Amino acid sequence: MWGGPRGSAHRRSRAACEATAGGGGCADREIDHAGKLRAGACRFITGWRYRGRVREPDEREDRPEPADSAHSGRAAGGIKEPWQADPGADKVGGGPAGSRGGPPTGIDTSVAHNARVWNYWLGGKDNYAADRAAGDHVLSLFPSIVDVARADRAFLRRAVRYMAGEAGLRQFLDIGTGLPTADNTHEVAQALAPESRVVYADNDPLVLVHARALLTSRPPGATDYVEADIREPDRILEAAAATLDLDRPVGLMLLGVLNFVLDTAEASRVVARLVEALPPGSHVAITHPTLDMGGEANAEAMAFWNENATPPITPRTVAEITGFTNGLEVLEPGVVSCAEWRPDPGELGGAPQRVAQVGIVARKP
After folding, report:
1. Domain count of the chain?
2. Residue 333 preceded by cis peptide, ω within 30
3. Which of 25, 153, 301, 344 could bond to 142 as cystine, CB 3.0-4.6 Å?
4. Residues 355, 339: Cα–Cα separation, whole Å
5. For 12-56, how does the pLDDT look when each residue is reduced to its tens digit (9 = 90+)?
6. Per the domain annotation, does 66 fall within a domain?
7. CA gap 135, 121 in Å, rounded
8. Residue 318: which H helix or E strand, with range?
9. What is the CA radius of gyration of the chain?
10. Global confidence as pTM
11. Which domain holds residue 358?
């Protein structure tokens, strides 16, 4: 949510993964655009892993989001208390905004979820009535949240462009990737260096369903997807090694995901273990919500979220977030609002608008 369109840090079992895909195990199965299983593309290593190309959506699946969206400028209808969605709101049409199918097995659409709410704020269609209602209420409490979402996405583009361009990296590990949207990590990297290899990791079931949208690269590049929990860095590294050469520098993307690891000491251990496994010359990009940088008004919105939605989130001070880079060389302009990290004047149309989202890029010496 405030951290970005990223997945949660909540552990899911192998059985839960199988339930998400309709049960019956995982061998040689693939989930198509509508969430149905097809033969031929899925196998376990240390979690779900997908390879393949995404099918172009049918015209019937590409319908505009409802007029009650936050992006239409009108208040959402059917919302109670005042943020709760009408329990039957998703039964008409059965699926997320702009779709005709029902929700994939294993996804609870009655409770707002971070990845889907963030998708809603960015104008996407992979969200349900509960997500839109909670998103609208958060927006009423913290009106700059949509600016945060856009700034976080723009930071990803700039950070990956720097890594693939000036830093010369050709490998990326993006943990907590969230739902596919414009300018995914592999698209930005491969636009500069077609041979770039990217591994995405997330454990959100809806991200799992849409994983193939992240696997659209063609030779000489490669992409892979790992279903994994950020609290299990060794599991992520083991699976990523099937695609990435961990003896060569890697760009580690931790955008809006450490805020779901509520204990700061645990979050620090996760970062340290991931960095330890990467060679010198690797880079780490971090974004993280804070109540500093003018984000004090976000406290009420976060409290609402933690009481009514999932997964729980925590802000941290700038000093605490900076602590994740211990032992690394923080690159200029240092620890700043993500909107202020090497802004592209043409993209912003002028000076960047500061948002309460820290952005850091650091290098392993």
Report:
1. 1
2. yes
3. 301
4. 7
5. 333 333 333 333 333 333 333 333 323 222 222 223 333 333 323
6. no
7. 7
8. helix 318-322
9. 19
10. 0.74
11. 1-55+75-365
